[in-house]
Amino acid sequence: MTHPPYLHPDYASTVLRAPGREPVMPRLGPDSVELTAPVFGDAELGALDADLTRQAPGEPLGERIIVTGRVLDARGRPVPGALVEVWQANAAGRYAHARDDHPAPLDPNFTGAGRCLTDAAGRYRFASIKPGAYPWRNHHNAWRPAHIHFSVFGTAFTQRLVTQMYFPGDPLFAYDPIFQSIPDARSRELLIARFDLDTTEPEWALGYQWDIVLGDTPVEE
Question: Nearest to residue 158, comparing CAs of 113, 211, 216, 210?
C-alpha cells in the first residue's frame, strides 16, 4: 500500500503537524518488554462493546450495518487476540463528543464507540449504524465522506494502527483531501469496505466486509 505524505497542503492540519526536517536517526524498533508485556484480556471487554446498536435503553436511529473482516499481518497470516476499537459519527453526522458543535442532532441511544478482540482466525465483527457525512471546515464547503475510525492493537501499545474505513460509492471521495492524500488509486480502494450479501442479515442490517493488514507494524512471532 502507498502511504500518504506527512505534508499534504490540501489537508490543512498537516501544514502544522507534519515534520519539517528529515529524521536524524533510523526508526527504532520496540524493546522486548514492549512486545511481550501483557496488555489486554477478555475480562476487559463488556458483553455489548461490539454491538453499538444495543448500548443504550432505546434503539439508535439510522441504517443498521454489520462490519466484519480479518486482521492480518504483512504475510497474510491472521492476528488473533488483537484489540480492535471503532468510533464514528451518528446517522446525522455528529459525534457524541463535547468538541463536536456541528448543529446536527445527537442520538441519546448511540455512543458511536465500540471494541472487540479478534478470534482465532483474526476476525472481528461490529454491529452499528451507518454514519452520516459531516462538515469539517478544512476548506470552503468541505464535507467528510461517511467513515468509521479503526484502531488496532497487536500484543502491545507499540503495535497500533489507526485508520479509517469508507463505504462504497460515496460521492464525496473526489472532494475529500484526507482520502485523496493517498496518491495511489489502488491503495485508496483498500480503504473502502465491500458490501456483502452473506454478511447482511435479512430484515435487520446490511453487511460489509473489510480486512485490515498491519503491514510493517511490529508483531511478535
Answer: 216
> pTM of the full predicted structure?
0.89
Give the catalytic positions in this structure: 95, 134, 144, 147, 149
Give 142-194 pLDDT, tens digit per residue: 999 999 999 998 666 667 889 999 999 999 999 999 999 999 999 999 999 99
Write out the chain in H/E/C secondary structure.
CCCCCCCCCCCCHHHHHCCCCCCCCCCCCCCHHHHHCCCCCHHHCCCCCCECCCCCCCCCCCCEEEEEEEEECCCCCECCCCEEEEECCCCCCCCCCCCCCCCCCCCCCCCCEEEEECCCCCEEEEEEECCCCEECCCCCCCEECCEEEEEEECCCCCCEEEEEEECCCCCCHHHCHHHHCCCCHHHHHCCECEECCCCCECCCEEEEECCEECCCCCCCC
